[in-house]
Amino acid sequence: MKKRMKKLTALLLSAAMAIGMLSGCGSSGKAGSDSAANTEAAGTEAAAGAEAGTESAGTVDTSEHVDLKMYLIGERTPDFDEVYGKINEILEEKLNCSISVDFLSWGEHDTKYSLLFSSGEQFDLIFTASSWCHYEQTVALGGFYPLTEEFIQTYAPDIWEVVPEVAWDQARIDGQIYMVPNYSNEFGQDVLAVRGDLMEQYGIDEITNWDELKEFYLACAENGMYAGQGGPWYQYFQAQGLSTTGGAPNAGELVLYHAQDPEDLDFYYLLDWDGFTDYCHQAKELADAGCWSSDVLNSNDERQTGLLTGRTAGMIWNMGSCLTYGKQANEEHPDWNVTLIDPVKDMPKKVNPYINNGVAININSQHKERAMMVLNEFYTNPEVYDLAMLGIEGKHWEAVGDDQYKVIDETNYGVSNNCNWGWNNAEIQRTEYIENRTALDDTYDAMLEEWNNNIKAAHPYDGFNFDSTKVSTQFAAVEAALGNYYTPLVNGLVDDVDASIEALRSALESAGIRDVLAEMESQAAAYVGE
Hints:
- The chain is 43% helix and 12% strand.
- The chain is α+β, with helices and mostly antiparallel strands and 530 residues long.
């Protein structure tokens, strides 16, 4: 009962999200031709273990030493091997095993990930994520070992107690779990880092909604300052309660859904939605006024460049990045008083799906039980967790109290910089101690607390992710057609808004957008009906 109550609380409060934004379910709904057999085998294996008395990780037979291998995403930092040497000391003592790690770099994982499975390479654990890191695709190929509830409870009982039920539901494809999702609230909404001195100069006290944001943009232009590095398109449709649809064209932007209304199961295809036309007209008004550079379409500037160079009054990004670059700007220009603003302040917040980060077991692993037990240590053992996230205590970081840390040397390991995100665990994760706090730190903490106390109700499409396989030709043509019209429109850089929208509409119709939409509707209906 305790576990179920905790999971229910997580479902109602933090998970707001049945976000399997990728919940594989939402994608193809097919787990690959071998999934049924794999599921049956997993259930049989777990049952056999239970019959042998393996009621918890502590009673599983670990008399045989095994060497495991794990794949992570990113780049190996200089002290990585030293840190994992410490982790292996713990694993050797507790589970009579060790683990080695190989990395797939950011530039190569798209091409090399599937090859690990098609080649039959021997390894045990691998980082995965819905949508962006090959979860649904690998399940469809039969590459991941299906995890029954009995298997998880037997070999990772602590994980079973921590991960909320909604996260397991997000990970299901055709009713079967193929990954252990992470457990942390990651918010799927950007904020703005804005120069407070300019807000004061322009007589603007707060920016909490679209009208106030637009007022600030126009005030910047009137005073010869660019407000940002492009049109605030996301801020507009989020103010309408809408959100991107997982797997839809153009990173989900072409088809939106009403994330704030769980009863609304319509999709909002931009060319059929009056709000898109309204935004494009407002974007042109802002662009013509000089709210951003007319050369923005040709710019290669990073998001923070305008703010840090003083060319723009603000920047749009996630809360953590806005804090980081806002603090940098304030250190270099204390009089700027950069602060954080939320242009949809009163709107309940969308939490990213828990399956945005996770870990799976290779179907070809020879040591599936031990791999699951090792993952249990990474996920729930505070000593292992701190090592993987922060490095070696006394060398890379030092503890402040029971739940905070202070960086000593971040250069040779890096805080949360080694793909430890697959086992994020909010229950034991330390937060950084800020020795010389600033007003911006206080604003960030207050905003984060507000967001955590205002998580939106779950919408069925939070966990939906469109699989374009059946309409891949049309999907590709739609993506190609967008390039000529879409970006200029959302940045207000067209001569005639209505004519440009009609040109975009015609191009998308010719490309086959109706086939894509029909397939999306079909998949969504099947997904919601599950």
